[in-house]
Design brief:
alpha+beta; 6-stranded mixed beta sheet; 3-stranded antiparallel beta sheet; globular
Length: 174
């Protein structure tokens, strides 16, 4: 479940980190903690992506991304290594991914529009219940589906900028 609490960004910064929070449209967005299965799928996705990244890129989770007056905590983010004193990443990530949980509309509708507006070039959505991964690429300010993997077509090589990442959904949701 997701709860929105109107407040200023300075008040948001004073909130404790537990439960996980994001900041959008003048509201703290407080979310339930993910399930163990969500965590397992995310860990597997991170491993698959990390194993294919060149030097100079890393895959992380639970990192604050603040490109403007919004702040998100995507499940997965691929970016260049940041200095130790960087608290919130403000650049453009190579890839963002969300693993769906109880608030599917948040990841499938709201974040799709928000991440596109913020300029994230690639956004993946993993739906463990459906055993799917949908890859979106930003084109002319909105996302277009460039790959949809599932039970009938579980593997593909997906472009993430100049990278090609080979994904097999069976490795993620088994």
């Amino acid at each position: 479940m997701t709860t929105r609490i109107p407040m200023s960004y300075s008040d948001y910064l004073e909130l404790p980190d537990d439960p996980p929070n994001e900041y959008q449209a003048g509201c703290a967005v407080v979310m339930d903690r993910p399930t163990p299965y969500h965590g397992r799928v995310l860990r597997r996705l991170m491993r698959v992506v990390e194993d294919q990244l060149p030097d100079g890129l890393e895959v992380l989770s639970d990192v604050a991304w603040k490109p403007d007056d919004q702040e998100w905590g995507p499940d997965l983010i691929v970016l260049e290594p940041q200095p130790q004193d960087v608290v919130k990443f403000t650049g453009t990530p190579r890839l963002l991914a969300e693993v769906l949980s109880s608030d599917r509309a948040r990841d499938l509708v709201e974040k799709l529009a928000e991440y596109a507006a913020a300029g994230a070039p690639c956004y993946w959505v993993v739906a463990p219940r459906d055993e799917t991964l949908t890859a979106h690429e930003l084109r002319d300010g909105s996302y277009r589906v460039v790959a949809r993997l599932g039970r009938h077509e579980p593997t593909a090589s997906i472009a993430v900028g100049d990278l090609q990442l080979r994904i097999d959904t069976r490795e993620l949701v088994s």
